[in-house]
Design a protein that fits this description.
Largest sheet: 2 strands, antiparallel
GO cellular component, one term: nucleus
Organism: Phyllostomus discolor (pale spear-nosed bat)
Number of strands: 2
GO molecular function, one term: translation initiation factor activity
Subunit structure: Interacts with GAPDH and STAT1.
Protein name: Probable RNA-binding protein EIF1AD
């Protein structure tokens, strides 16, 4: 593994960490000691060691994960014939790392007429 990746750790939004404060350095104030997975959080909650301030955040995050993992039933196809399945892109993955460009039908028609 290249040296620039050896000390990196990837953490998702909603994950919990145990950190220790460090004295050295001006920008870095703490060092990651441990990354808590959902099993660790559950066991700490059962033992009563989980802080009350984090319990609401953990419950919201776990419920949002459950909603994302539950498959949605596909809608029944419309038989109007006007809309084709290629025009309906609502079930496609949306990349949140890119800007969203929305093009209306009116703008595309104006561009076609101008060309």
């Amino acid at each position: 593994m290249p040296s620039k990746y050896r000390k990196n750790i990837w953490i998702k939004r909603g994950d919990f960490l145990i950190v220790d404060p460090i004295e050295e350095g001006e920008k870095v104030k703490a060092e990651i000691s441990f990354v808590l997975c959902k099993d660790h959080v559950r066991s700490l909650q059962k033992e009563g060691l989980w802080p009350e301030a984090f319990s609401e955040v953990a419950e919201k995050h776990s419920s949002s994960r459950n909603r994302q993992t539950q498959p949605e039933l596909p809608a029944e196809p419309q038989s109007s014939g006007e809309e084709s399945s290629s025009e309906d892109d609502s079930d496609l993955f949306v990349n949140t790392n890119r800007r969203q460009y929305h093009e209306s039908e009116e703008e595309s028609e104006e561009e076609e007429e101008a060309a």
